C-alpha cells in the first residue's frame, strides 16, 4: 500500500469540501470513484466513516466534522431550527447509542477478518502489535488504539484461538459489551463471561 497514495486521499478528505461531503453521502461509491489501487480502496472501505475521520485527523491534523444540509438548515431557518437543533440530541440519544454499539460490533467483525487474513499468511493469529505491522491490519489497529471512541477494544491470542472484546469505557455497567472469536460471530458479552475475560 502506497503511503503517498493514502496521504493524498487523507489530505483531499481533509481539505476538499465537496469530496468530504461526497464521502459522507456515498462512502463506498466515492472511494470506488477514486483512482486508488484496488487494495487501497478495499482497505478504506473496510473501515467505517467514523474510523476514517480518525485516520484523517491523525494524518493531517484536521478533525472532520460533517457540515452539510443540517448545518445549512439551522443557519437558514432561524430560531425555530435552533430550538429543534437543541432538542434533537435528546431525541436522538438512543439512536446515537445504537450507532456507537453498531460501530463497536463492526470493528470486532473487521478484527476477525484481519485475524483470518493474518493466520492465512503466517499460520497463527496475531496480537494487536502484530496486526499493527500487518499491512491489512494497520488502519484497524490504529482505530482500535485511538482512544476517542467510547468503547475500549482488547485482543487476547491463545494458541489457535483469539478473543476480541469491546467494552464501554465510562459506563460498562449500563452499556452492552461485545465479543468475537475465530468464527467471526459478534455477540453480546454477558456478565458471567465478562468477569472471565
Rg, alpha carbons: 19 Å
The structural class is alpha+beta
Low-confidence stretches: 67-88
Describe the strand arrangement of the main beta sheet, using strand numbers. 1-2-3-4
Oligomer: single chain
Mean pLDDT: 77
* Cα separation of the termini: 35 Å
Q: How much of the polypeptide forms β-strand, as a percent range? A: 5-15%
Would you list the SSEs in sequence order as H and E?
HHHHHHHHHEEEEH
SS elements, strand count: 4
Which percent bin holds the helix content? 55-70%
Instruction: Summarize the biggest pleated sheet.
Output: 4 strands, antiparallel
Tally of individual helices: 10
The geometry reads as globular
Give structural notes.
- It is a single chain.
- By secondary structure, the chain is of the alpha+beta class.
- It contains ten helices and four strands, in the order αααααααααββββα.
- A four-stranded antiparallel β-sheet has the order 1-2-3-4, covered by helices on one side.
- The longest helix is centred in the middle third of the chain and has 44 residues, at 79-122.
- The radius of gyration is 19 Å and the shape is globular.
- The two termini are 35 Å apart.
- Residues 67-88 have low confidence and may be disordered.
Question: Which keywords apply here?
Answer:
single chain; 11% strand; alpha+beta; 197 residues; 10 helices
Amino acid at each position: 500500500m502506497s503511503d503517498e497514495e493514502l496521504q493524498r486521499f487523507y489530505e483531499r478528505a481533509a481539505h476538499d469540501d465537496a469530496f468530504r461531503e461526497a464521502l459522507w453521502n456515498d462512502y463506498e461509491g466515492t472511494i470506488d470513484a477514486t483512482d486508488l489501487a484496488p487494495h487501497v480502496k478495499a482497505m478504506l472501505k473496510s473501515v467505517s466513516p467514523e474510523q476514517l475521520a480518525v485516520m484523517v485527523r491523525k494524518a493531517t491534523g484536521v478533525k472532520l466534522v460533517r457540515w452539510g444540509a443540517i448545518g445549512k438548515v439551522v443557519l437558514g431557518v432561524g430560531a425555530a431550527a435552533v430550538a429543534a437543533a437543541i432538542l434533537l440530541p435528546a431525541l436522538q440519544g438512543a439512536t446515537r447509542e445504537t450507532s456507537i454499539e453498531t460501530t463497536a460490533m463492526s470493528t470486532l467483525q473487521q478484527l476477525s477478518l484481519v485475524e483470518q487474513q493474518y493466520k492465512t499468511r503466517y499460520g497463527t493469529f496475531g496480537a494487536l502489535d502484530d496486526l499493527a505491522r500487518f499491512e491489512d491490519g494497520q488502519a484497524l489497529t490504529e482505530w482500535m488504539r485511538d482512544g476517542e471512541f467510547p468503547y475500549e477494544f482488547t485482543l487476547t491470542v491463545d494458541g489457535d484461538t483469539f478473543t476480541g472484546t469491546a467494552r464501554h469505557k465510562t459506563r460498562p455497567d449500563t452499556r452492552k459489551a461485545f465479543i468475537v472469536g475465530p468464527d467471526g460471530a459478534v455477540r453480546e458479552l454477558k456478565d458471567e463471561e465478562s468477569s472471565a475475560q
